[in-house]
Write a structure and sequence with these properties.
heterodimer, A: mainly alpha, disordered N terminus, B: 113 residues, Alpha-Beta Plaits, 4-stranded antiparallel sheet, 23% helix
């Protein structure tokens, strides 16, 4: 049986070699997994909408849901017109992709071997589109309940173009300078989470606090919605990280497995911290911890083993808990839904942790980290983190200033008091009568 | 004895409660209500169909006090709720005929405080 299997494999690979000159061979299993993963990652944006939406006040629920759905539309078209080309198109000096794939020109149904030799190029493109959509979505946690909808739309389009696309190219694009430097980011720790988390901090600083923050804030209006959203995020993350293997193989299994393990370790750790420090474990703490764990394992999935994933999960909850509970309170910035505290800080920890615990035993195409005899990787990871933090901080700041000059960032005090649902969208999430 | 009813902006509730507390007026009933004054409601639009004259969310406070507490209570509500914008709300003062404390059966002024 084994021998027969081997013979068949040989036969297939000979066929593949013969066909190579004409067309690379599409693997149906790989393609099915990546297409399904694209759908998984897509579902994370509505999931995020409910996660964030449950945490805001009643009067702003629809504004959060609307912002997430608007991103699905705007960023998708941006991605088709030029975003994908800027991110993954033919490299220009390691900095950005060229526009030669604009309008998905030459992005066809056959594989593009530099990124994924066994799946259609279009499958890779649409899978990556889902990452481009959710990344600006993460930022909205920092400016929720006070940003003008028009300003949100303009800012998101600019941010996707001038921050996400370049950073995506540096880390994942062929020829990107961080990729060439050897920085490891399996599924988007730097590209997605640090990038969005730092932009979130800038938004919180530039827009300023919500009226009444922090002394007169209401509690989350619907925690069950937030829990539903967190569940969808956890589910979608299997596609986010598992799908990043771009194959239905052992690496995908490993990435999916450590994703789950890290989330479990982080959720448990956050709960225990609350139990010990603030008397009772809370539902909000549990989901915050789980999401932080998913963030932290994102760059490391596909490079680390199951036991090290536990350390990454424990570590992220300790660090993020400290940031959300102590640092944010001390400095008094209004990162409303902890987009920076969880995604920024958790992403930085995850990227550095990849430099600690990565091992070639999991992924020969990766590298060994600090604990596997290669301290150099930690420094490379640190450098990638610093570059991303600095770039995202500066450009996000500039873009916010431009949008402020164009349309104004913040709603009026009256509009903020009445709520964004009614003032920005002319509808209400909930009725009181009937 | 008077019965004071105030309709205020939802986001002023915390401040009003704080000022009331400062003047040692601890007893208050709070309800979330819908209403409309000169500010008028904001109309909502669903699939192009405009719903006119909708109502705005407000908070209603109800406080029963002895006569000497009427002025401090009204002052406290005004101080806490005033933003100088249209929609700040109103205060109504009504005569209160009787008051019973359920636990002890006390009647009148002693039962209020």
């Amino acid at each position: 049986m084994g021998v027969t299997g081997f013979m068949i494999l040989m036969g297939v690979s000979k066929l593949a070699l013969a066909a190579d000159a004409v067309l690379p061979v599409i693997n149906t299993g790989d393609t099915a997994w990546v297409l399904l993963s694209a759908a998984f990652v897509f579902l994370m944006t509505p999931g995020l909408a409910f996660f964030y939406g449950g945490l805001v006040r009643k009067k702003n629920m629809l504004s959060v849901l609307m912002q997430c759905f608007m991103l699905m539309c705007i960023v998708t078209l941006q991605w088709v017109f030029f975003g994908y080309s800027l991110s993954f198109g033919p490299d220009i000096k390691g900095i950005i992709g060229s526009l030669s794939w604009a309008g998905l020109h030459s992005v066809g149904m056959t594989p593009f071997t530099d990124y994924s030799a066994t799946i259609p190029h279009q499958a890779f493109m649409i899978y990556q589109a889902m990452f481009a959509i959710i990344t600006p979505g993460l930022i909205l946690g920092a400016f929720a309940e006070r940003m003008k909808f028009s300003a949100f739309c303009v800012f998101s389009l600019l941010w996707a173009t001038f921050v996400y696309d370049p950073v995506c190219h540096w880390v994942w694009g062929v020829g990107g300078f961080l990729r060439n430097m050897g920085a490891l980011d399996f599924a988007g720790g730097t590209v997605v989470h640090i990038n969005a988390g730092v932009a979130a901090l800038v938004c919180a600083l530039v827009l300023g606090k919500r009226k009444g923050y922090p002394s007169h804030m209401s509690p989350p209006h619907n925690l069950p919605f937030a829990v539903l959203g967190a569940g969808l995020l956890w589910f979608g993350w299997f596609g986010f990280n598992g799908g990043s293997a771009l194959s239905a193989n052992g690496l995908a299994a490993s990435a999916l497995m450590v994703t789950h393990i890290a989330a479990a370790a982080a959720g448990l750790t956050w709960s225990l911290l609350e139990w010990k420090i603030s008397s009772k474990p809370t539902m909000l703490g549990m989901i915050t911890g789980a999401v932080a764990g998913l963030v932290a394992i994102t760059p490391a999935a596909g490079f680390v083993g199951p036991v090290d994933a536990i350390w990454i999960g424990i570590g992220v909850s300790v660090i993020c808990y400290f940031f959300v509970a102590v640092v944010k309170t001390k400095f008094g910035y209004d990162d409303s839904l902890d987009a920076f505290g969880v995604h920024g800080i958790g992403g930085i920890w995850g990227a550095l942790a990849t430099g600690l615990w990565a091992t070639k035993a999991v992924n020969p195409a990766g590298n060994n980290g600090f604990f596997y005899g290669n301290p150099g990787l930690f420094l490379v990871q640190l450098k990638a983190v610093v570059v991303t933090v600095v770039y995202s901080f500066i450009i996000s700041f500039v873009l916010l200033k431009i949008v402020d000059a164009l349309v104004g960032l913040r709603v009026s005090e009256d509009e903020e008091r009445i709520g964004l649902d009614l003032t920005q969208h002319r509808e209400s999430g909930y009725t009181m009568l009937d | 004895m008077k019965y004071i009813i105030a309709v205020i902006q939802p986001d002023r509730l915390d401040e009003v409660l704080r000022v009331l507390e400062e003047k040692e007026i601890h007893l208050v009933t709070v309800t979330s209500v819908l209403g409309r004054g000169r500010q008028k409601g904001i109309s909502e639009v669903y699939r192009g169909h405009k719903e006119n004259g909708r109502l705005l969310k407000k908070i209603k406070l109800e406080i029963a006090v002895n006569d000497e507490f009427v002025k401090p209570t009204v002052d406290a509500i005004i101080q806490g709720a005033r933003t100088n914008h249209i929609g700040d709300g109103k205060i109504f003062v009504l005569d209160l005929k009787e008051c019973f404390r359920i636990r002890t059966g006390e009647i009148g002024s002693v039962a209020i405080g």
